[in-house]
Structures are given as structure tokens and as C-alpha cells.
Amino acid sequence: MAKKSKKWSFGPGFLVTAAFIGPGTVTTCTLAGARFGTALLFALVFATATTIILQEMTVRLSLGSGLDLAQALRELPSSSLARGILAVITLAAITFGCAAYEAGNIVGGALGLEAITSLPPKIWVIFISLLAAAILASGRYKVVEKILIVLVFLMSLSFLTAFILARPDLSAIGKGFVPSFPSGSLPLILALIGTTVVPYNLFLHSAAVRQKWQGKEQLGTARRDIVLSVTLGGLISMTIVLTSAAAFFGINADIQNGIQMAGQLKPLFGNLSNILFGLGFFAAGLTSSLTAAYAAAFASSGVLGWKEGTRSWKFRAVWLGVIAAGLFISLLDLKPLAVILFAQVANGVILPVAAVFLLLILNRRSRMGGLANNRVQNILGVGIIAVVSVLGLWNILKLFLK
User: Fold this and answer.
1) In a 3-state reduction of DSSP, which class is residue 175?
2) What is the residue-level pLDDT of the chain in tens, covering all 402 positions?
């Protein structure tokens, strides 16, 4: 057993990266680079570090207590009323939230494939939806994990190649790591952090760790996995910012979303830009489609106390419902404004609530043993709760500031 614990391979951390590098993140990073050059890179450094700290806490929760976050939330409150309220909030934020945003994931992936081919996006919408359903239908966590790892590396290769071709000014990169707040940049700074520190990743990762590893002796392996995978995700985001900055900053280009960068770069790189950004956008859309549906199923299972596992009909019904909702909204070109607004409010609430409960559970030494928080980890945890509370408040306030 000891020998086995030293063996390391890519694991659940890549689900976290696959989840937060979606079409929304690509677009946010593109806008940040086009409007502010390299000035906002510090926000991604902060967001990456915050994500690593939070997800490391979920690692210790799963390995120390034997529970994922959703199960721990169900167990912690002493009264049935508190458990019921927490279950409703969690299901609203995670399950309904994932369903509300699934259409954006599917459409984003379809736009990527449309950039490479001449086929209309609705054909690719159906293809991506069926592909996501087929992958999750295997019912095997290891299959899903391996496919997501491949897609993350495909994203890395696509966006890194585009970054190299764009030839950014490397001397300006260092300045971006020094915090600065150019006029009008605050919404994008918060968006860069908010698209990286994703609430449902806390539930998805803690459940995935339980699927992959058992026992405290796996802590070192799990930590290396999360540090490597989230750092890679942060670097992907940074390469997108830098590519956009090199191509568009200072020329007043009308950039509204990430896929437009392929068209704008076509005069420089020819069809290669379409292939690079098309594949990157496709991978980003598909990975987010998979992880959103998977996270919703894991969160529902844990909060509602389902014991049957990933091959149960209830687990399958949740992820299938999320994909079906995304497909339905995408094909009919619906604007589910009320649902999305509700999801934004719910996500704004669940992120700080989940972080608070995570910190509380990690201080229960009777449950966590040697993996309980120490003083430094508690200080970091309190600081993160303050940050995610601001993010949660911003997610709610921005609904009324438009």
C-alpha cells in the first residue's frame, strides 16, 4: 500500500481546470487583454492561488472525513430545518445553476467547431450534447477523468500555440503581476476571479477525490495533482489574456467574445487561427458541459443522501437533465433570463456559504483528525471567505447595476 501511495498520475484536479476554463472564461480573458493589455494578470494569479487553497481544503475534507462536501453539508447541521434550507440553497445554486449555464457551454463549443468547418452551429450543438451524454453514460469516473485530461491538454496546446504566434511583448508581462486598477477595470477584475473560483468545483472536486483516492496517505499525491492542474489552468487563462493583448490592445478592436479573436487574427495566421481557437473553444465548451452536468449530479446525490453511486438512475437523471436543458435552450435560441438571474443570485449565496461550512468542517478534529486545519490554514480560510463573500455580493449587485 505504501508503495502504491507514492505512484502519481493526473487526477481529479484536472476536473477543476476543465470546469473553470469554459467559453465564459475564454471570453473574459479575451476582453481583459483587449481592453487593458497585461495590466490585469495579477487578478488571475490571485484567483489561481485562491482556487488552489480552496480545493486543497476539499482534498483534506474528503481524505480526512471520508465525505464529499455535499455529504458533509447534509451531516453538519443539527436540525432538520437547517438541513432542509441548506439542501434547497445547494440544489438551487449547483443543480439549477449548472442547468442554466449549460446552454452557454454547449453553444461555446459549437462556435469553436463552426470556426473550423462550414456546418451551422445547431448541428454542432446537437453533436456536443450527444457526445457529452455518451461520455457520462459510461458511468465510470475513470473514463470521464481521462477524457477531461485529454481535453485540458488540447486547450493548453491550442491557446499556447496561439500565444507563441502572437509574439507578445514579454517585457510588459512582468508589469501585469503588479496589482493595478485602471479606470473601468473593476468589473473585469472581479469577473476574472469569479470565472476561476467556481462554487460547483468545491462539490465536484471533493466527490472526485473520493472516487480516485481513499486514505490520508494519499494527501501528498492529491495536493500535487491540484497544484499542477489549477496552475496549468491559470497559465491557460494568462496565455489568452496575453494573446488578446498582443493582438488588440491599443487599436480599439471591437471584441465582444473569445471566438472573435480567431477571425481578427486570420489576416496574420490564415486558417491556422481558426483551427487553434476553434479547437480551444470546442474543448472549453465540452469540458464545461461535462463538468457542469457531473457536478450537479454529485451535489444532488450528496445533499439528498443518495447512496447508489454514479451508475444509479437518479444520478444519471440529474446530469442528463442538465444536458437536455442546455440542448433545449440552445436549439430554440431561448433567453432563460429569469433562470439565469436566479442562478446568479444562488451562486452568489452558495460560494461564501460553502466556504464557511468547509472551514467549520475542517476544524472538527474529532472528524478530521490530523488533517484538520492549523492556525495558518484558518487565517487563509478566513481571508478567502472574505474574498468570496465580496464576489458573491458582486454577483448579486451586478444584476441591479445593469
Assistant:
1) helix
2) 334 444 556 789 999 999 888 888 888 898 898 889 899 999 999 999 999 999 999 999 999 888 888 888 777 766 777 777 777 777 777 777 787 788 888 988 888 888 888 788 889 999 999 999 999 998 788 888 888 888 888 888 888 888 887 777 777 788 888 888 888 888 889 889 888 988 888 989 999 998 888 778 888 899 999 999 999 999 999 998 998 888 787 776 666 666 666 665 665 566 677 788 788 889 989 999 999 999 999 888 888 878 767 888 899 999 999 999 889 888 887 665 555 566 666 667 778 888 888 888 899 888 888 888 889 999 998 998 888 888 878 777 766 665
Q: Is residue 344 part of a domain?
A: yes
Domain enclosing residue 328, as ranges: 15-401
In this structure, is residue 7 part of a structural domain?
Answer: no
- The full length of the chain comes to 402
Residue 243 in grid coordinates: 494573446
400 exposed, middle or buried (CB, 10 Å; 0-12, 13-18, 19+)? Answer: exposed
End-to-end CA distance of the chain: 56
Q: Which three cell numbers stand for residue 16?
A: 477543476
- Contacts (Cβ under 8 Å, ≥6 apart) of 177: 41, 42, 45
Scanning 23-79, the segments in alpha helix (DSSP H) are 23-36, 41-65, 69-75
- Which of 1, 344, 37, 32 lies closest to 169 in space, CA to CA? 37
Q: Coil, strand or helix: which one is 311?
A: coil
Q: Tell me the whole-structure pTM to 2 decimals.
A: 0.87
CA angle 349, 355, 361 (to 5 degrees): 130
The total of structural domains in the chain comes to 1
Question: Does residue 58 contact residue 209 with C-beta atoms inside 8 Å?
Answer: yes
Q: Domain holding 177: CATH number?
A: 1.20.1740.10
- Contact status, residue 372 vs residue 325, Cβ threshold 8 Å: no
230 burial level (CB within 10 Å; 0-12, 13-18, 19+): buried
In a domain, 8, yes or no: no
Dihedral in degrees, nearest 10, Cα atoms 6, 11, 16, 18:
150
3-state SS string for 337-367: HHHHHHHHHHHHHHHHHHHHHHHHHHCCHHH
330, 140 contact by CB (below 8 A) = no
Is residue 3 in a domain?
Answer: no
